[in-house]
User: What shape does this take?
Amino acid sequence: DVKVTQSSRYLVKRTGEKVFLECVQDMDHENMFWYRQDPGLGLRLIYFSYDVKMKEKGDIPEGYSVSREKKERFSLILESASTNQTSMYLCASSLESVMNTEAFFGQGTRLTVV
Amino acid sequence: AQSVSQHNHHVILSEAASLELGCNYSYGGTVNLFWYVQYPGQHLQLLLKYFSGDPLVKGIKGFEAEFIKSKFSFNLRKPSVQWSDTAEYFCAGTPYGNNRLAFGKGNQVVVIP
Assistant: This one.
């Protein structure tokens, strides 16, 4: 079974802090994703990585950056946390494939910025 | 721009009723389409997927979806729902050859016993 593991289920951070969310997958997937999930807005893509050190901005990248130094690990960084970044953050991974683009998800990290 | 859209965000129905959730996509050409489900407190799980072939796709737990290319739609159906189907349902898709997965806004489904 594919396993996508996010380092924390719950986090509480103060405004202005630098926050790191970590994600690890164990199936040698090329693609990794960070989404945020908010009620009524569904999942919105923050960043996408298709290879080590390669990244692409998603729909809402402002206030975030990412790091992918190893294939299995994809980190989301909030440079200076703000209250409007309080949300559920979901990491996912998928194979690099023309046909089978199914993504597998972690449990999510619920981040509260106070 | 929204590549995948869902309608009627909240759906409330009684057990044994039929469920249909609409999904439309805006990609041209070949697409890969998915329905994911998120039960309360759990992570997203795949219900079913369409890549090619038979446009009627059967998934887990009695769900099915029909791909209608002329309508750019991929609607989810279940003939008779159970209380345990209470969950949020998300439609998602990628255009052919592109792995960037886009989601709709989701449908919150509540099944009353």
About this structure: DSSP finds no helices and eleven strands in chain A. Residues 90 and 108 of chain A are 5 Å apart (CA to CA). Chain A touches chain B at residues 31, 33, 35, 40-45, 48, 50, 56, 58, 90, 92, 94, 96-103, 105-108 (CB under 8 Å). The longest strand of chain A covers residues 42-51.
